[in-house]
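To make this tangible, we now present a fold written out as tokens:
***
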Amino acid sequence: MQTGQGGVTGDIGELVEALANVVLNAIEATPPGGAVFVATYEGRDESQHWTVQDTGPGMPQTVLRRVGTPFFSNRVGGSGIGTALVREVIERRGGDYSIESKLGSGTFVSIRLPRATTKTKRDTASPESKENAA
């Protein structure tokens, strides 16, 4: 996955799925007439930042502390897997994932992924070794 000039490493499908999960959670939490805001930007260190903010009801601190715990869901019919997987995908890449929420004020999710600084073995392999691997 390449974003901005710095880029990030990782399977594009997995990263898109993680971001989509966060956005869908925000949409589901937001009542009719509310709003969901998604922003991306590049940090000074060329890290990539994604933020998602909703105008939903927010969560009390007792619930917020448990968000991301596998199999815990505050939503009827929720599995509690999505947010745990998002956290795992981001942290496996050396990134940061945080959620802020206040009851009555909505929720703000922040994702930071470090700039891609090294190439994978496949990216740096010689043409001969790439042919042999195929």
Summary: The chain has one domain: 12-133. Residues 12-133 form a domain with the Heat Shock Protein 90 fold (CATH 3.30.565.10).
